[in-house]
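Example record

One chain of 239 residues, shown exactly as stored in the release files.
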Amino acid sequence: MNHPNQTLHRRTALRSTVALGSSLFLTRGVFADLIQTPTQTEGPFYPNQLPLDTDNDLLIINDSITPAVGEITHLSGIVRDQKGNPVRNAFVEIWQVDNNAVYIHTGDKTNRDNQDTNFQGYGRFLTDSQGRYYFRTIKPVPYPGRTPHIHIGVSRAGKRLLTTQLYIKGHKNNSKDGLLNRLNPDAAKMLLADFQPMKDSSLGELQVDFNLTLGMTPDDDQRKNLKGVAKPLWKPRTR
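Predicted C-alpha cells for this chain:
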C-alpha cells in the first residue's frame, strides 16, 4: 500500500526544487541576437510507445514508491528566441537511457534484461511565461558507442523547432563521440553543461542549467511534426 503522504511529498519536493531552480535563471534584459542552439539527430530511440506517465519527473512513475536508480539530477533552463525573448508554452521533451544504459524504446535490445522499469525514460514540460522548463531525472550514463547524453526536443504550435542533445562537460568519453565531434568546437561547447552538486542536498543530488535558443517561432496555424501528444502537464501550483 502506498504511504498516504507519498504523492503529496513528491509534488511538494518538486515544487520546492522548481522554486530553487528559478533563482538560477538569468534575469531578463536587453540581448543581442543569440546564437541558435546547435541541432543534433533525434536518434533511433525516441519512444515508439509513450510511457503511461509522461510528466517532468522521470524518477517516479505515477504514484510508485520505488524510484529509479541513478544520480538524481535537476535539469532546468530557459527557452528563448534569437532576440532573447522567452518562449512561452514551448513543448519541451527529453528522453534518455536508464542507469543501465537502456532506452524505453522497444527496439533497443542492448542490455534489455537489465532495464530499470522504474525509470520513466521520457518526460515533457510546457514552459511558463518566462520560458522556463524543469525536469527531475538522472545523470546520463554512457551508451555503447556514445558518450553520456540527454536528448531534447522543443516544439511550439505543433511544430518541432529544435532537436538537440545535452552532454556532460569534461566527460572522458566526449572526445570519442562521433556525433558530438561532427560539430565545430564552438558549437560543441554550447551543448556541454556542468552537472554540479546541489547545495545542502542530503541525497547527493545534482543540478544542471541548459538554456535553449530557437532559430524561429512558427505561426499558430502550423500543425505538424509534433512528436509527443500535447496535453496539460503538471506544473508547480501557485498559492
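Notes: The first helix runs from residue 6 to 22.
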